[in-house]
Amino acid sequence: MPYRQRLIIALDISSGQKAYETVERLKDYVDIFKVGFELFSSAGFAIIEQIHRLNKKVFLDLKFHDIPNTVSRAASLVTKLGVYMFNLHVSGGMEMMIRCRESVYETALKEGITVPKIIGVTVLTSLTNEILKEELFISHGVISHVKRLSALAKRANLDGVVCSPQEISLIKKTCGKDFLVVTPGIRPSWSPPDDQKRTSTPREAIKQGADYIVMGRGILRHEDPLKALELVSVEMMTA
Ligand code: C5P
Asked: Could you tell me the sign of the dihedral formed by the alpha carbons of 65, 213, 55, 110, in that order?
């Protein structure tokens, strides 16, 4: 897959107008834009339609985590919007994932639209072994937890998982090379880690086998986002 189809720009921006301007500015270099809580809470479905009108794809990052009925109904609506990819927390359990997938396939078939990729969130890239243990009472550590949740997502027939770049090769080894890996927590050598704890450079993530890398602040907060994009693209191409 060419690098520009593997780079996802996180539109962590609260204004719909500013997000739209960002997509317009970057659209010749990027194919997929991620709409998360912040932007969705302010701009709603309209921003998704606007991005689609520019012929760009949307990764809807709302990380569904609720009872099976609620998630499957929301997933059906998201499918009707024609998003390219969306996600849900694997820790919502097997039944939630299975019912979500069934409702997505049923809706896509009924509406005659492309089935979106369903991606499971494993362990957030801002979490560490200490946080898992001390706050969430999960004592077997991040790596083992990511491995277990990925295996569960695979059994539920999800298309892949979101995880930190440091777990890519482990997931490819356990779940197979066709199981998609989407990684945020990407920090080129020139950008600060911010709140991300388990980070890697774009080059390393691609080398490890990431199918998609998600980048927000590393590009959008750079003084020259197009320059940052160019540097990241070169890193990805030479990985
Ligand atoms: O600015 P930065 O590159 O850190 O943005 C990463 C993006 O990826 C954010 O939009 C964040 O919500 C998202 N994300 C994450 N960790 C996950 C899943 C999604 O950082 N496990």
From this structure: negative
Query: How far apart are alpha carbons 194 and 64 in whole angstroms?
Result: 24
* pLDDT, position 39: 97
What is 3-238's CATH number?
A: 3.20.20.70
CA 109 – ligand 1 centroid, Å? 31
Ligand 1 centroid–CA 121 distance in Å is 11
Tell which atom from ligand 1 comes closest to the C-alpha of 10: 10
Contact 38, 28 (CB under 8 A): no
Tokens at residue 170, please?
Answer: 């482990």
Compute the distance between CA of residue 1 and CA of residue 236 in angstroms, rounded to an integer. Answer: 11
**C-alpha pair distances (Å), 178 with each of 35, 149, 154, 159:** 25, 17, 11, 8
Residues 89-114 pLDDT 10s? 999 999 999 999 999 999 999 999 99
Q: Where are the domains of the chain?
A: 3-238
Angstrom distances, CA of residue 145 to CA of 57, 136, 148, 169, 200: 31, 12, 5, 15, 19
C-alpha neighbours within 13 Å on the C-beta side of residue 21 = 8
pTM of the model: 0.94
Cβ atoms 140, 149 nearer than 8 A: no
Q: Is the CB of 196 under 6 A from ligand 1?
A: yes
Which is the closest atom of ligand 1 to the Cα of 164? 21
Q: What is the mean pLDDT of residues 48-75?
A: 98
- Alpha-carbon distance of 47 to 236, in angstroms, equals 28
Instruction: Answer for the pair 130, 108: CB distance below 8 angstroms, yes or no.
Output: no
